[in-house]
Amino acid sequence: MLIDDAYLDTLFHAIAEAHREVRPQVAVTPLAHSFGLSAKSGCQVYLKCEHLQHTGSFKYRGASNKLRLLEATQRGKGVVAASSGNHGQGLALAGQALGIPVTVYTTSDASPYKIDAMRALGADVRTLEMDSLGAELEGARQALQQGKPFVSPYNDPEIIAGQGTIGMELFEQMPDLAAVFVAVGGGGLISGIGAALHRLAPSVDVIGCWPANAPTLQRSLEEGRIIEMEEAPTISDGTAGGVEPGSITLPLCQRLLKGTVLVSEQEIRDAMRDVAATERWIIEGAAGVAMAGMQKMADAYRGKKVAVVLCGRNIVLEKYLEAIA
């Protein structure tokens, strides 16, 4: 798919509409200056606190935008999704507010904490003995068979527009940023942020950050096509897994990203510990990926203002404590 200026204009208008219409249920999260992380990195570091968003993740933004746009007949049928946790939690809460039933397909190795949280918010959670991409494809198949909308965690312009409200907020909160660091899984978050900033602040470098153990979309960008690859285990479970064939996020990332960076598991853990030590915040592995990416590229932005999107906090306590030990 060709992502031309006309497409980006349409997407930006959808983001701007979402920015207006999802309030007040979707919170405007703080952009907090970190003195400690600034001193450590040599950059002026600002933290976009999506870990303080409802359900503890940015995913509530896209879910809220998607469900508000459903027609009445679609709302009555309910929606189907696939998620390792955060997308499912966001959809479940948004569905609860609008009276829309939500079914989520997930993998048996998904975080028990996140599965319990989805169920506590009212989602019907189905666990499958397959990888995350397999669960996604099965969820889409079931939705088609049942005549219900399938809500992709990333391959959906309305989801991307909801996530793009972060880019709108970043511009309003700090219009002179030099760079924004974002963890990437399927690419919906960074596509939305990139599309907003492409219009509002095109000089901002939007940097995609991946675990070196799970870089499927990054490798797909290098190949120029969506590929399948064997990923290794990563503490960043929110960004792990393959990318749906034909996903719109590939050409969006090709157009909008200014750079990519891979980080090791140790670098992710160190970044999580640095946030705990300086800010006293628990963040999940995916947020640690973005922080580690910034720290790895800090020399390129020395003395400049950079934002790190702390995309979520949903991690089992014992796993977190082990990570930062």
> How much is the average pLDDT?
96
Alpha-beta classification: alpha/beta
Low-pLDDT windows of residues = none
Note the beta-strand portion: 5-15%
Global outline: globular
Search tags:
Rossmann fold; globular; alpha/beta; six-stranded mixed beta sheet; 325 residues
Task: Provide a concise account of the structure shown.
The chain is α/β, with parallel strands linked by helices and 325 residues long. 48% of the residues lie in helices and 14% in strands.
Task: Describe the fold and architecture.
With 325 residues, this protein is α/β, with parallel strands linked by helices. It folds into two domains: 5-57 and 158-324, 3-Layer(aba) Sandwich (Rossmann fold), CATH 3.40.50; 59-155, 3-Layer(aba) Sandwich (Rossmann fold). It is built from 15 helices and ten strands. It has helices spanning 5-21, 35-41, 59-68, 72-77, 86-98, 112-120, 132-146, 157-163, 165-173, 188-200, 216-223, 249-256, 265-279, 285-296, 317-324, and strands at residues 31-33, 44-48, 79-82, 102-107, 124-128, 150-151, 179-183, 205-211, 259-263, 305-309. A six-stranded mixed beta sheet has the order 1-2-10-7-8-9. Strands 5-4-3-6 form a four-stranded parallel beta sheet, sandwiched between helices. α1 (5-21) packs across α10 (188-200), α3 crosses α8 (157-163) and α8 crosses α10. The protein is globular and about 55 Å long. The N and C termini lie far apart (45 Å). 55% of the residues are buried. The mean pLDDT is 96.
